[in-house]
Design a protein that fits this description.
The protein contains eight helices and six strands. The chain is α/β, with parallel strands linked by helices.
Length: 213
């Protein structure tokens, strides 16, 4: 996985998280999801963007898009809002559809969560402020499938900060993805769609990879 070799130190995961992943791996050893815990040997990654409401019945809009060493493959994307349409706040659900550019609402069932897990596979995940994005999504996975996403993860925000400090130690570090895109002369985000955000984080990741060469 040449894309990730230079950034192993940025893999997210405390000791507690690693122990939990190992426990999940053992528990899922005989399940259809056992392969998700196997090391990935290919060259692809998945860029993830996720926004969740603070309601008791959360509404979570998700986009996952595949990338390789050279291209972001927007034709290979998974985009949906995950919510229990019977109990979720209707206003919040409409807001997510409009604001985050999703047209499909899926119940947080094991079947639907399994579809997302299989789309991501065991490929490494990247994303802007990825830990924050995954908190609510992993809670759904644990409830519906019995495990959180076990994939290797790289936070593009941390990668951006490290690269910027290396090149310009005195420059203020950008905390928003839009500012980071401007900094690296990449197309700005249009709106707040989750597909746009996941694509932007993928483009930023590839740009930072080239900068590190």
């Amino acid at each position: 996985m040449r894309l990730l070799d230079r950034h192993v130190a940025l893999f997210s995961g405390s000791l507690r998280t690693l122990l939990q992943r190992e426990s999940d791996r053992r528990r899922c050893a005989g399940s259809p999801y056992a392969w998700l815990f196997q090391p990935y040997m290919g060259e692809e990654l998945v860029a993830l963007a996720c926004h969740a409401s603070d309601d008791a019945q959360p509404v979570i809009s998700v986009a996952a898009v595949v990338l390789d060493q050279h291209h972001v493959q927007t034709s290979r994307a998974w985009v949906a809002t995950i919510a229990n349409t019977q109990s979720a706040n209707a206003t919040t659900l409409r807001r997510h559809h409009c604001l985050y550019g999703t047209s499909v609402a899926l119940a947080p069932s094991a079947e639907n969560l399994g579809t997302l897990a299989e789309f991501i596979g065991n490929r490494p995940l990247i994303g802007w402020q990825l830990d924050r994005s995954l908190d609510r999504l992993n809670a759904l996975f644990k409830k519906g499938l019995g495990f959180g996403l076990p994939n290797a993860q790289v936070d593009v925000a941390k990668l951006h900060q490290r690269q910027l400090r290396r090149l310009h130690p005195q420059v203020d570090i950008d905390s928003r993805i839009g500012d980071a895109l401007d900094r690296w002369q990449l197309p700005t985000l249009s709106g707040h769609s989750v597909l746009g955000e996941s694509t932007a984080s993928a483009l930023l990741y590839l740009r930072l990879q080239r900068e590190a060469e």
